[in-house]
Model the fold of this input.
Amino acid sequence: MKLMKRLMAGTVAGVLVATLFASAAHAAEPAAAPAPAAGVNTFNRLMKPKSDRNPAQANDGIHDPTCEGTGLLQLPKEAFKDMPEASSGNYVDWVQALNKQLIKPRYDRKNPNEEPVVLDLDIVREVKGTMPDVVYPHDRHTMWLDCSNCHPDIFIPEKGKNQISMAMILMGQKCGVCHGKVAFPVAECRKCHSKKKDGSGGGKPAAQAEPAKSEPAKKPTK
Amino acid sequence: MKPIGRGFWRLTMALALALCLGMDAALAEYADVVLNSQAEAQGVRPVIYPHWFHRIRFRCKVCHNELGFEMKVGSNQIDMNKILDGKFCGMCHNGDIAWGTEFCDRCHSGLPGLQTGIRGGSKSTGPGEY
Done:
């Protein structure tokens, strides 16, 4: 208990000091125009401005800014400059970037011309409750991945054999092996829950509807 | 003397805590991986692997199928010896496909004390989290 109290007191003190440091840093900047009257009641108090996204490695809290190599790394903002925007993750819509050929990631380690084996097969999973049904598009996954990345370890390739829940996904299982870590996180509900109960939706996303690639794969190639 | 020392200790701890909480998960680029099961114990900075940089240049399949990287933090036992033998990172970072292993500080660029794990996203305590 004593330790808890001590820790609490310490934390409060620490935050206070951190705030002081922060305000001192602000004060050191050249005097800007007088602050708007809003004061503490600013607009979007809890929403981070877009300028805070994709910080340079030296300021990201995990790279050592004193390390020489840190300064040589490509800046995320520079790399993402012309990429289609997303609302979470890296704030890049990777599938659209690929479809629009803004990036040309290799499918083979050595051969830059190897084409992916794309499977165009949508799996619809009916969900309980009022959320729209889930449409799982094989095509957007096989553009990046090999069948063996998911089958049979994560998903048994047989209808009705896979129990999936949002709880499991949030715990890092099933879709959560990638979604929430490297692929778009579960906050983007409608990207998966896309087929409304009245039958509307569930088609290709806007990025695929437009003729970006020469011809989106209609059937399994190879 | 004693109370001052204690207060200073408290403050330092609290500051460190505030820094960790404030910066770590919130600012790192989505899917940056920290590898530090051996690095710091061997006297070098932790490794930071940026997924975003690599996925611009390679599809997931190349590393997670051809190169044999398991898709779970902590399940790949990587060390410099294996990399020099052309395994894991060494499949490309060999001076042929990508720059070689002589540029230590391009990968070993993490802050001291980082825990192995995947950064930049939301946190859960499930089996997928290490």
User: Anything to note?
Assistant: The longest strand of chain A covers residues 133-137. Residues 85-206 of chain A form a domain with the Cytochrome C3 fold (CATH 3.90.10.10).
